[in-house]
Amino acid sequence: MDLALLLTIVIGVLVVLAGSAALLAPRRRRLPSTPGEPALRGASDVDDRADEDSSGGGVGTLELPRGSTVDLDDGLDAALLEPTLERPEPVAGRLVRLRERLARSQSSLGRGLLVLLARDRLDEDTWEEIEEVLITADVGVGPSMEFVAGLRKRVQVLGTRSADDVRALLRAELIAAVGTDADRSLRIARHDGRPAVVLVVGVNGTGKTTTVGKLARVLVAEDKDVVLGAADTFRAAAADQLQTWGERVGVPTVRGPEGGDPASVAFDAVRHGIEAEADVVLVDTAGRLHTKTGLMDELGKVKRVMEKHGPVDEVLLVIDATTGQNGLIQARVFAEVVDVTGLVLTKLDGTAKGGIVIAVQRELGVPVKLIGLGEGADDLAPFETEAFVDALLG
Ligand code: GDP
Known about the structure:
With 394 residues, the chain is α/β, with parallel strands linked by helices. The protein has 15 helices and ten strands.
C-alpha cells in the first residue's frame, strides 16, 4: 500500500479514537469564575428519568445565554468582551450596616415602647397602649399579651426606673421573645462528597428569586462554588432574572424549557452541582398558591426528585414581612407541604411590622435565618437576635 495512504488511514483512526475518549471523559471541573457562563439546560424531562437511578447522562446541553451574539472563533478577543465580575460584600456585620433600614419598625416598635415605658405611672391604660404597639407591629395577639405580662412583672421587681433601666429591661424582654437558642446557621457545607442542597420556597412576589440571587452572593463572598437551579419554569422571566443574578458573580444557572417540569430542572441542578463538585446548589421554585393540593403535588415532587441525589439540607421559606397575617397563613400552607428548616423575612426595610419576626417563629416553630432589608444586591443579612433588637431600639 502507498505509504502516504497508510499514514492517512492511521492518523484518521487516531483522530476518531481521541474524539471518542474526549466524549467519554468525566466532565468534572471547578465552577467557572467568569460571568457570561452559559445557562445549562436540562437535557430531558425528569418524568422519564426521575424514577430511574440518577446515574448516567450529561448535565444538559450548553447553550450561550440568550441575546449572546459573540462568536469566539471570529478573532475577537473574548477576554475584552467579558463583563467584570462583581465582588459581593462580606457577610459579617451586614445587619449592623443595614440597621437604619429598620427605621419604621424602630420608631413605632422600639421607640414607641421605650416612650410608653418611660412614663412615670404605668397604669392599665399605658399597659394597653404597650400591647397595642406590639400588636400593630405584627407581634401577634398571643405573643403580645405574654410579652406585656412578662414586662409588667419585671417592672414591678425593678421598682423605680431610670431611662437606662427601662431600655435594658425592654432589650432583655425583646431578646427573650425573639429567642437566642435556635440554630440560625445555614447548612451550606459540602458533606459526604456532595454539595449542600438548598431549596427555596414561598409565595410568588415575596422575593424568592431575589433572595436566591442575594444568597448566591453571600455564598460567593464566602468563597463557595455555587450552582443555581431555576425551577420556577412557569415564568421565563424568573429564570432570566435568576441567571442574571448568577452571571454577575460568575455562578452558573441550570434551567429548563419554559413551562417544563420544575422537578426536572431541580434534579438537573443538583446533578450538575455534584458533577461540578460545587459547594452549594440553590434551587428557586414557583410559589403559585392555586390550590393547596396543586402546590403540595408540585413542591412535594420537586423535593422528592431532588432527594434521589441525597437529602435536601435546607428548605428556606421566604415570607414578605409586609403581608402580616395573610403572609402567616400562606406560610403555614408551605410548612405543611415541605419540612421548612429556616425562614427568610424579606422587605423588612421601611415597614413598621418588625414584630413579625416574633410571630412567624412562634407560628411555624422555625427560626428566621436571613432577613431582606432592601432591593440592593447585598441587602440580605444573616439574622442575629441581639443586633436586630439593638437596631429596633435605635
Ligand atoms: P418572587 O416572585 O418571590 O421570586 O419575587 P421576586 O424575587 O421577583 O421579588 C419581588 C419584588 O420584591 C422585587 O421587586 C424585589 O426587588 C422585591 N424585594 C425582594 N426582597 C426585598 C427586600 O428585602 N426589600 C425590598 N424593599 N424589596 C425586596
